[in-house]
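User: Good morning. I'm curious how PRP would be positioned relative to this chain. Could you predict the structure with it bound?
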Amino acid sequence: MLNVALPKGRLGEKVYAMFEKAGFECPSIKETNRKLIFENPEKGVRYFWVKPSDVAIYVERGAADVGVVGKDILLEYEPDVYELLDLKTGKCRMAVAAPREFRDDTERTLKVATKFSNIAKEYYASLGRDIDIIHLNGSIEIAPILGLSDVIVDIVETGTTLRENNLEVFETIVPISARFIANKASFKFKNEPIEKILASLAEQTKG
Ligand code: PRP
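Assistant: Good morning! Here's the predicted structure, ligand included:
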């Protein structure tokens, strides 16, 4: 049985359709209920929906053999997994944003609010800029408005959240997209189905 961790939400549904195309369908997943685990013994596959930021934890510890996770999570937590393929979907970017009137005073320590502390630290270290990280768990956009921070480091997809809070992007740190990942031992011991999915996903994301 191949265990697949999918990120709950729109991205997960899109990705499930790709796995289905790869020959690992599981019709019961389409039933509308609040169940989180679905399996199709005939195809030897079991899917489960998890919080997008938890997918890598399941895969790293072997509770899932494979999964789909945003590159942001891989950069932030550096889980010990194989990153097998860029699925070229779930595209967004990691960016520095601030109120329009913000001007960086390099004499002062920059206060940075973020959920992605490691990405922010690494980015500013590469610029040789002194920062003070304020780690938050969500609604990051509020921080500069209330004076909790000077800037934020966060994910920008459509830019709507920034716009509606009078913030704008100052710098893009890195482009982000969804990645197909595998547990290292599973990649060895369940190589056949994983390679089969990988080949189909690669074909589906080509061009
Ligand atoms: C992310 C991010 C922004 C928003 C950006 O939050 O933190 O708030 O999406 O998207 P946009 O550019 O299309 O407006 P997410 O919805 O993932 O949830 P979160 O509040 O848990 O961070």
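The chain has a mean pLDDT of 96. The chain is about 30% helix and 30% strand.
Let me know if you'd like a different ligand tried.
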